[in-house]
Design brief:
Elements lengths: L1 H8 L2 H20 L1 H7 L7 H16 L7 H6 L2 H16 L1
Helix pairs in contact: 2-3, 2-4, 2-6, 4-6
Length: 94
């Protein structure tokens, strides 16, 4: 079941979307971490690991890698990461 979902997500537009979101999140953290942290409410126990996981998932999907094992396909499922990255970016810019 997850193989079919991941196969449908391996489209260039969706991969580019993941990569752009991941590069944006990583770039904002690298460029000015203090300012970015202030805008999203600080790096705490909930949003810091979520941001790291979502950014890694975005890079994994954006580069076209598809995990083989079903558990890793579930852990690195791109739509979950999109939700986290869009939420964090929207809270940083609104």
């Amino acid at each position: 079941m997850l193989d079919g979902l991941h196969d449908r997500l391996l489209q260039r537009v969706l991969m580019l979307f993941s990569l752009v979101l991941a590069v944006t999140c990583a770039g904002l953290v690298i460029w000015d971490p203090q300012s970015f942290a202030d805008k999203i409410g600080g790096f705490n126990l909930t949003n810091a690991p979520a941001l790291i996981w979502a950014t890694c998932t975005g890079f994994i999907h954006g580069m076209g890698f598809k995990p083989r094992f079903w558990l890793w396909q579930l852990v690195f499922f791109p739509p979950f990461a999109w939700i986290v990255m869009i939420y964090i970016l929207s809270s940083a810019f609104i």
